[in-house]
Design a protein that fits this description.
The chain has two domains: about 130 residues, Rossmann fold (3-Layer(aba) Sandwich), CATH 3.40.50.620; about 120 residues, HUPs (Rossmann fold). Helices cover about 40% and strands about 20% of the residues. The chain contains nine helices and ten strands. A ten-stranded mixed sheet has the order 3-2-1-4-5-10-9-6-7-8, sandwiched between helices. The longest helix has 25 residues.
């Protein structure tokens, strides 16, 4: 797996039940790729509050120690080399982004969302949304029940600058994993169909450089609805899409990426432009 597109993998986890899928896939990727796995455990820190109530800080440190021990035990059982970093700060997402930059990560693996709260209507958790917004590398969003993909990869490519990167990355993964790949393009209307078909053909060719089991598919309609339908109909268990800058207001505008990733129970790889 030496030609795998990701060689510096960072797992961001708080080792809760919601992180189980992300941990499972990160360990599997590290093992399959034969690369060490960097792990960041972000801790919320308020120095003033902790100075007043040091027992809270001690309890947080003990809890972090227990989580790290459990992660190391998992890694040892799988034969995965683990490098765990604990980072403390006022914002967990900022610590994850900083760690990814320092580590020069090319992939961050993270849960899709955590415990429901007043932000429960968000398809992707607030912390995770901020990580995607601020980070420069690819991000793998993992639902907690997700398993490593073994059926089909689907690449959703639009008429955007990131389309070729999505196709190439999906082709590399499909080829290395020996899986079929569907390159999906969605035309908003019949008038745009010819251009969409041409772009789909181009992206199929790009993906085919790394995989010999690539199939192109063009649909007409709304991108989110058609992509979710295609994932379900093809049985894909990994989706590769492009990243968009989007609003972080809980009930404000969402992006196509958020709607796709948040409405499926399969891992979604978000490729930067």
């Amino acid at each position: 797996m030496g030609n795998y597109p990701f060689n510096r993998i960072l797992l961001a986890t708080e080792h809760t039940e919601f992180d189980a899928g992300a941990e499972r896939l990160a360990f599997a990727m590290a093992k399959r790729c034969g690369v060490p796995l960097r792990v960041i455990v972000p801790l919320l820190s308020n120095p003033e509050y902790e100075a007043e109530m040091p027992e809270l800080a001690l309890r947080a440190e003990q809890d972090a120690g227990s989580k790290i021990a459990a992660l190391r035990k998992q890694a040892d059982a799988l034969g995965v080399q683990l490098d765990v970093q604990v980072r403390r700060g006022a914002e967990r997402h900022a610590e994850i982004v900083a760690e990814a930059a320092e580590f020069k990560a090319d992939l961050v693996v993270i849960r899709r969302r955590g415990k429901p709260g007043f932000l429960s209507r968000m398809l992707i958790g607030e912390m995770v949304s901020k990580v995607i917004h601020d980070i420069s590398c690819s991000v793998l969003l993992v639902p907690r029940a997700a398993e490593f993909w073994d059926r089909r990869v689907l690449a959703a490519v639009g008429d955007t600058p990131s389309a070729s990167d999505i196709a190439k990355t999906a082709g590399t993964i499909a080829g290395l994993c020996g899986l079929p790949l569907t390159v999906l393009s969605v035309s908003p209307d019949e008038a745009s169909l010819s251009r969409t078909q041409s772009l789909n053909t181009l992206n199929v060719a790009l993906a085919s450089a790394s995989s010999d089991r690539v199939h192109g598919e063009v649909r007409v309609g709304k991108p989110v609805e058609q992509t979710i339908a295609a994932v379900r109909e093809t049985g894909a268990d990994l989706v590769v899409i492009g990243r968009q800058r989007y609003h972080l207001i809980p009930f404000g505008s969402r992006s196509i990426m958020q709607d796709i990733a948040g409405n499926m129970d399969v891992p979604t790889l978000v490729v930067p432009a």
